[in-house]
Amino acid sequence: MKKIKVLTIFGTRPEAIKMAPLVKELESREDIESKVCVTAQHRQMLDQVLELFDIKPDFDLNIMKTRQSLTGITNRVLEGLEEVFTAEKPDLILVHGDTTTTFAGALAAFYQQIKVGHVEAGLRTFDKYFPFPEEMNRKLTASLADLNFSPTIGSKNNLLREGIDESVVFVTGNTVIDAMGHTVQKDYVFENDELNKIDYENKKVIMVTAHRRENWGEGIENICDALSEIVDENKEVELVYLVHLNPIVKDVVDAKLGGKERVHLLSPLDTKEAHNLMNKCFMVMTDSGGLQEEAPHLGKPVLVLRDVTERPEAVEAGTVKLVGTDISAIKTEANKLINDPKEYAKMSKAINPYGDGKASKRIVDIIENYFGLAKHNIDEF
Questions:
Q1: Residues 226 and 338 in one domain
Q2: 198 and 85 inside one domain
Q3: pTM of the entire predicted model
Q4: Contacts with 82 (C-beta within 8 Å, 6 or more apart), sequence order
Q5: Confidence of residue 1 (pLDDT cuts 50, 70, 90)
Q6: Catalytic residue (one of 120, 238, 287, 365)
Q7: Domain membership flag for residue 91
Q8: Is the separation of the CB atoms in 332 and 340 below 8 Å?
Q9: What is the pLDDT of residue 156?
Q10: Burial category of 357 from C-beta neighbours within 10 Å (exposed 0-12, middle 13-18, buried 19 and up)
Q11: Catalytic residue, candidates 118, 211, 297, 362
Q12: Which GO MF terms are attached to this record (predicted)?
């Protein structure tokens, strides 16, 4: 039987979480030779996911540097992948979402006329600087992709409006929902004992992440000030802030919230710990993209600390609300959820529009159809 070689490329923790179940599905198919290349755009946080899902990369570019620039990341990915592609000659590469690894990977494949599959294709804010550089990474990757795997019908329609041929766009659901089927456990005990000591039954525990580039400076400062006031004004609230390792973020958070009562400042957790914290918490406040998909799957309201989102489906479904970085707006919306059970129920019981746990299987079925290896009937999400 003729096999095709599929090389999956990712470099950050969010990509790894969402690509891990897809890698496992690729490995299960007899007609596919699955290879994995990590760029290590992130290092420590990426390695945690690789260990959790027992993925051993065939190639590791190990590009991460202290205070790395977007130009430096792009150059190192292009140069590293040129060598990998020359040696391996894959039939298809898969990239995910919106990172610099994603765009540079697609560009490197284009330079060698290798087919590109884009997982989580079609998300848009329609503002090239928000989120930065992710919005343009997505758009540029779409222009290079041969197969587009969109998580929702809305993301598919974005691609069609940009002139992408409908025959190469498929609605699959989001692979992060597949991943959560492996990570969330009902009676989970945390490795981080500080998390085990929190009273999730009687406290309203808010899980926080905020680190995006467009929020650096005043945005992060405002978020921290709002969080401080929320804790002061609501004695039942306990805050768990997973602080990004970047000193541009960490220094501000430590200065504003360090040592404060009922505030836990923790380093980013591994995927299993983070998903189970999300499952136990009261609500989520974040500027992350992925958490906007993950938390609604667990029935947790999400306040998005950004002015725009490339995931409007969750806003429309009522599971997510945009609050930006204005102190007053953050406090107002957080206090509604903390103090109004009807507001909380409205958001926590909304339907998650992002997946059914079968995205990875759909994607690999589509790949096999594309290369003439099988004739699957594709039941799109």
A1: yes
A2: no
A3: 0.83
A4: 108, 111, 112
A5: low
A6: 120
A7: yes
A8: no
A9: 98
A10: middle
A11: 211
A12: UDP-N-acetylglucosamine 2-epimerase activity
Starting at the edge strand that comes first in sequence, how are the strands of the sheet with 32-38 ordered? 59-60, 32-38, 4-10, 92-96, 115-119, 147-150, 169-171
Whole-angstrom Cα distance, residue 351 to residue 335?
A: 23
In the residue annotation, 273 being an active-site residue is answered as no
Query: Which amino acid makes up residue 106?
Result: A
Quote the CA–CA distance of 258 and 239 in Å, as a whole number: 12
Is 244 an annotated catalytic residue? Answer: yes
Tokens 């260990």 locate to 51
Give the residue carrying structure tokens 């129920």. Answer: 345
CA distance 33 to 209: 37
Catalytic site residue from 43, 182, 213, 262: 213
Structural domains of the chain, count:
2
134 catalytic? Reply is yes
Residue 59 clears pLDDT 90, i.e. is over it = yes
What value does the mean pLDDT take over residues 287-296?
90
Q: Which amino acid is at 20?
A: A
Q: Is 182 labeled as catalytic in the residue annotation? A: no
Q: Considering the domain boundaries, does residue 380 fall inside one?
A: no
**Mean predicted confidence (pLDDT) in 22-32:** 97
Note whether residue 185 is domain-resident: no
Over the stretch 246-267, which tens digit does the pLDDT of each residue have?
899 999 999 999 999 999 999 9
CATH value at residue 207:
3.40.50.2000
